[in-house]
């Protein structure tokens, strides 16, 4: 088990927040290069896809979640790629699993039990809390939901900031809320803070919200709930990882990054890995500092790996799940 990122946070530095500006055209140009670069060589591509698998927060967050959904998700978390395909790639003995499973707080215990049955006790369970996805519940209720999820055994908590506070520049209040959530998590539980970037208006605001969330002690910052009108985009990702880089240079604390929302294809996952590698370096390519929140991405990755191994595309019944 890799040790997760841990960020104790710092005092709110409003002067730093206020002077931050993002150059939108420059960010867009840079993001475009990540998409148009020559594709990674074939054998490397397969290695990158396996790497992406280990960084997936395999997620089920629908109103109609059932225990059989959760059971299936947890089995897949432990067995993300068919064993014969892994064997063919010489990866059969690696105990390849996803980074975590991510469920609603009411499903944490079920997920832990299902992981145990699947032999995946080492896989962390992350819970969304704080009135996901809108964050529109009283603050006390949000803190209680965190405590409950932690009590049930979640070791990672994904919270949503109050977009309204961020949009109107009430950074002290954003800071205080995130800091209170971190305290509610307690020792050894990792806080992932969702900015809801689709609702934040400008990239400068995304940068500021990233800084404030990190100052308040977020161990990860995450783009989206998947329920905003706009999902994780590369320009937003670039903006956030550059905030992570600046925060690391100033404080020495490494904060992780989690793009989420609308990431469905193997090709997308490679673009995100390239972004991490080029902006933050190899260390940020591991599941302790990088996660991709996704539900159907794994299906496409497994399809691509099937193709890599067999040179054929799989029929639907050959790769069950999704
Ligand atoms: C965002 O992502 C979610 C989850 O993948 C998806 O259901 C939704 O349709 C996406 N929304 C947009 C606007 O692309």
UniProtKB/TrEMBL annotation:
Annotated pathway: Carbohydrate degradation; 2-deoxy-D-ribose 1-phosphate degradation; D-glyceraldehyde 3-phosphate and acetaldehyde from 2-deoxy-alpha-D-ribose 1-phosphate: step 2/2
Broad class of enzyme this protein falls into: lyase
MF (Gene Ontology): deoxyribose-phosphate aldolase activity
Superkingdom in the source lineage: Eukaryota
Active site (record annotation): 222 (schiff-base intermediate with acetaldehyde), 258 (proton donor/acceptor)
Subcellular location(s) of the protein: Cytoplasmic granule; Nucleus
E.C. number(s) listed in UniProt: 4.1.2.4
A GO BP annotation: deoxyribonucleotide catabolic process
InterPro entries: Aldolase_TIM (IPR013785), DeoC (IPR011343), DeoC/FbaB/LacD_aldolase (IPR002915)
SUPFAM superfamilies: Aldolase (SSF51569)
Cellular component per GO, a single term: cytoplasm
Annotated keywords: Cytoplasm, Lyase, Nucleus, Schiff base
Chief site of localization: cytoplasm
Catalytic activity from the UniProt record: 2-deoxy-D-ribose 5-phosphate = D-glyceraldehyde 3-phosphate + acetaldehyde
Family (UniProt): Belongs to the DeoC/FbaB aldolase family. DeoC type 2 subfamily.
Binding partners and assembly: Interacts with YBX1.
Function field: Catalyzes a reversible aldol reaction between acetaldehyde and D-glyceraldehyde 3-phosphate to generate 2-deoxy-D-ribose 5-phosphate. Participates in stress granule (SG) assembly. May allow ATP production from extracellular deoxyinosine in conditions of energy deprivation.
Annotated protein name in UniProt: Deoxyribose-phosphate aldolase
Gene source species: Ciona savignyi
